[in-house]
TrEMBL record:
This is Probable alpha-L-glutamate ligase. The keyword Ligase applies. In the C-terminal section; belongs to the RimK family. GO terms for cellular component: cytoplasm. It comes from Roseivivax lentus.
Amino acid sequence: MTEETDPATDLIRFGWEEWVSLPDLGLPALRAKVDTGARTSALHASDIETFGPAGKPKVRFTVHPVPERQDLVIPCSAEIVDRRVVTSSNGEGESRYVIGTTINVGGEAWPIEMTLTNRSGMASRMLLGREALKDHIAIVATDRFLQPELSYDIYASTKVRSAAPKRALRIAVLSRENNYSTRRLVEEGEARGHTVEVIDTTRCYMAINAMAPEVHYDGKRLPRYDAVIPRIGASVTAYGTAVIRQFETIGTFCVNGSEGITASRDKLYAHQLMARHKIGMPNTAFAASPKDTDSLMRLVGTAPLIVKLLESTQGKGVVLAETKKAASSVIDAFRGLRANFLVQDFVKEAAGEDIRCLVVGGKVVASMKRTGAEGDFRSNLHRGGSATVVRISKEERETALRAAKAFRLNLAGVDLLRSEAGPKVLEVNSSPGLEGIEAATSKNIAGRLYDHIEERVRPTPVRKRKLLG
């Protein structure tokens, strides 16, 4: 059906009901009732919530574009241009947020203002007021759908997801530190028009119930977030993952889930998980209280050996025992402290160097070679090591991807050693720092993470089926 015009006046003819699209909001098909008695247009919206800076506030909301499909929900956001009281036909006034957006009808597009309100009791999801009607539109009150008809079937298409606009998001960064990584996540998110809030993990508390699970913070319920970026410190892993589980229960997208973080922090479980997925790693042995230290060392190999506390981070609690006697002394000392530890083979050919591969959304987005400080076999940057950009092999890339996938992490720092037998995974970090790798590679790693988040929180296509309309 082509656009219909009145040949006598050259005006575009509108019926009392027309199909429209709102591309800025990711709504490709809506039925709108034309009402010249109403000044401002109105859109049926739910879960209306403001966010963003006071000087430039935004509003986010959800739309059920198909009246018969309550399971189809499209999340939207827009800048607030006004707030005004709208009086209904029965004389009741309602304060509404006003947003600006683009309307598309019959191939023509123009900007309009629109209020957000609950129209669940109305047949039409949208009301088109006289301010939105251009001067060259003629209303034919007795007809409907004079412009090209659309179909609700489009919401079952993958094209809806691929064409969805990059809406403004409300994102929480769970972090207790004002460090480089936290600042970069805030800086990059805000540069993209998102609202990013840093939340101290330990100041969160939870209302745990089946009907309305919530996360509270400083005496108030936290708002709905589109995504949560966990930056959980090792010292608060247990409580931090409990908070993430609560967000998962609510249905918030968490960049890294609670299970993956927990597994990555438990060094023993982490190595068992990698063994289960046949991921190469240094020979490793563990025992709570072996009677024979020699037997434990023989499981790994000959000296030199690495003795590593299970709770170690950033290279702390990791000891290189260059001889069998030294290894025996370290093991006895750790056992005397009742500390849990691993014993690992020392990969000599790595020569104090490892490779950090940063995985985001199932892709290796950057890699760097870390070299330990003079006289230190540990390559951690926190301990004075240095980093340079490095080209990794196909095998190293695939190993890093398999490791991140095994832990179900969307963001992971996978540390590899280059050995004669191929790459061996030392550790999978669920909260990798951004400073060293951004400096070494000159890549915008925070930006790549936001690319992934924006892709994940787009509206998800519904299962294709016949829709009424």
